Amino acid sequence: MTATDLGLPRIGGLDLVPTTDEPQKAKEYKSDQEVRWCPGCGDYVVLNTIQSFLPTLGLKRENIVFISGIGCSSRFPYYMNTYGMHSIHGRAPAIATGLATTRPDLSVWVVTGDGDALSIGGNHLIHSLRRNVNLKILLFNNRIYGLTKGQYSPTSDQGMVTKSTPMGSVDTPFNPVSLALGAEASFVGRALDSDKKGLTEVLTAAAQHRGSALVEIYQNCPIFNDGAFDVLKDSDEAQRRLIPLRAGEPIRFGPEGEYGVGRGGWGGLEVGKVSEIGEENVVVHDPTIADTAYAFALSRLGDQSLNHTPTGIFRQVSRPTYDDQARAQVEQAAQAKTPDLQALLRGKDTWTVA
Questions:
Q1: What is the pLDDT of residues 323-344, one digit of tens each?
Q2: CA-CA distance, 207 to 350, in Å (whole number)?
Q3: What SUPFAM superfamilies does the database record attribute to this sequence (predicted)?
Q4: Integer distance in angstroms from the first to the last C-alpha of the chain?
Q5: Cα(177)–Cα(292) distance, rounded to whole angstroms?
Q6: Which of 111, 113, 218, 343 could form a disulfide with 71 if both were Cys (CB 3.0 to 4.6 A apart)?
Q7: Is the separation of the CB atoms in 307 and 291 below 8 Å?
Q8: Does the reported pTM lie above 0.85?
């Protein structure tokens, strides 16, 4: 029996129990634990944003779960007055998959960092995305290992000097959005820690999405990689660099909207002046395109220099979820005629192992 069978509402496709009639407040989502991050850490802003937007979902706090791995961001469950679990390094998506599959009444969130998710947890992340498990994965990207004191991470700049790369990193960094799209994630978004409005919009859409949703959050580490995203937070620079993605609208940016995104060579996209591209050739954003090629092309507009940085929702498509299909198989097996266990044990299908 599901909440739908009982006539109860569904949020993001989940079978959920409604809240009480009294509206919830952000303070109800704050635990009694002292928040302990370094002064100036972007995690504070993200935490405040999430605690502020969760009441708008209309869910009971006991129907929300935050699961984290290892890292500064992974302290998140302690600070949320919901259920939660501080798990092991890189394995949060695997644990969350089990929970989402067995408990369709829960809204399951994964909080992870660029090191936790993309290094030791890389395989767990991509498989949860390709399976389209009903999870909301928040990837805090500060381009450094913070908790373990400043080693380079899978998103650190090439040539970056850290405690583990004293002569500069020779690794090619991941683009988390491109990686998620390559894994066929059905929802992919990006936001800045300092942009509460934009972050709230992406998180709300992710919460309402049925399936795997990955949101990359550019987050500042003031101790080991301070100012990594400052160019996107300066009002003048932001207008020239940030490319807001709004469904149904032409992709334009710049102080006067003078720049736009148009079709490029080899099926890609490119940035140019609208006066040169032509107004009619500016791409109208559509995150619901089934083929990942379009969203992937958007993700490739920018690089580590942040010269062009799309933010918002890259992809938002509907496809069957792993947990729905797994539960359907269990139900189908339960309804089928149960075979006699003793008959199976005493059957003729036997093997002799030498």
A1: 999 999 988 887 877 667 777 7
A2: 50
A3: Thiamin diphosphate-binding fold (THDP-binding)
A4: 49
A5: 11
A6: 113
A7: no
A8: yes
